[in-house]
Fold this protein.
Amino acid sequence: MNESNWYMQLVRPEWAPPSWIFGPVWSVLYTIIAITYGAVFYAVAKGALPPSVALPFILNLVFNAAFTPLQFGLKSNILASIDILLVLVTIIWMFWVVWPHTQYRWIVYLNIPYLLWVSFATVLQITITKMNI
């Protein structure tokens, strides 16, 4: 069974969005991520931000990239739930480390849609996991 068939056979809550919405939403979010993370990595490289600021951004990229292989490759709702929680935690951590640097607060503001979508996705993934145990 291919990945999309597997996912379509899972029990999902009534409020789960249709599958087609994920592509457009992530396209917008990945554009935001590219711009803001690029700005952080550039600022760290030129010494405008301390290197420690980059850590939650790096971890967020790792956890974000791990979600699809965990969810659709391994077909593991439990691992995907843990991973999406880590994505959410690293976003909050990113906000925390950037906020004191006033000239870079725009990065926090621009990533609010990412935080909101991942918050929703976390609740959705945990709900799907519980419904399919």
Observations:
- Helices lie at 3-8, 22-45, 54-73, 77-98, 105-110, 112-131.
- The longest helix spans residues 22-45.
- The chain has one domain: 23-131.
